[in-house]
Hints:
Shape of chain A: elongated
Number of helices of chain A: 5
Mean pLDDT of chain A: 86
Radius of gyration of chain A: 22 Å
Structural class of chain A: alpha+beta
Largest sheet of chain A: 3 strands, antiparallel
CATH superfamily of the domain at 2-69 in chain A: Winged helix-like DNA-binding domain superfamily/Winged helix DNA-binding domain
Oligomer: homodimer
CATH architecture of the domain at 2-69 in chain A: Orthogonal Bundle
Distance between the termini of chain A: 37 Å
CATH topology of the domain at 2-69 in chain A: Arc Repressor Mutant, subunit A
Order of helices and strands of chain A: HHEHHEEH
Amino acid sequence: MQATLHAIAEPRRREILGLVRHREMTAGSIASHFDVTRPAISQHLRVLHGAGLVSERRQGTRRIYRARPEGLLELRKFLDEFWDDRLDALKREVEAEQENGDAGEGPRR
Amino acid sequence: MQATLHAIAEPRRREILGLVRHREMTAGSIASHFDVTRPAISQHLRVLHGAGLVSERRQGTRRIYRARPEGLLELRKFLDEFWDDRLDALKREVEAEQENGDAGEGPRR
DNA sequence: CACTTACGAAAGTCTATGCTTACAATAGCC
DNA sequence: GGCTATTGTAAGCATAGACTTTCGTAAGTG
């Protein structure tokens, strides 16, 4: 998950993901969408591939990339758990507050 | 969302989030869980707070922090959309493949 | 008021990283 | 075999960022 977060924390890499989200693209055509040099994009693609966020397929000398949404599964799970746990905690707090119902307490803070 | 990703891409900051996920904590008690200096944690807390991932409350000279799961909403949405879109695309591809049913094509790749 | 406690802010250091300019590798074409 | 096209790799550079030490600040306490 560290690799996933590190990969998508970089704006350019998220843009790349957006490009290959629906269709396959060669490294070259991906690079042509940006104003940085091709090797820079190549390095981003390596990071994305290393994190399992894109698949790489070779066709002759071309390399064809495509988004791999499964690569985001672990992160999604992390966020969902965090979210649920926190909401549960809020719920427990509210309930505890109601149980020791010392009226006239007034709004805290 | 850039701020959110930047914030949680750092492992130490995720640990901090884990600490204050269920309970409030002062900056000092948070820092005591790590082997780096207190100012380092203070800087992490500033990043987390700037990204809206923790709330900050002052009580005398103490600063009390707590996780703010709402701060993850936008990122969750981004991931969900990405996920759904991509699965939809896969579905469309499979259907298209079935429609032009040239049998004997065999498994690709 | 002096003293302590609990912090953040500022400045400097060191590493990580995104970028560039070479260069190498591999596949097709004549 | 040469030639071109498409791409990754290597090395170097400049900026970002995580950390440290030092200092400043605000709230209590005697």
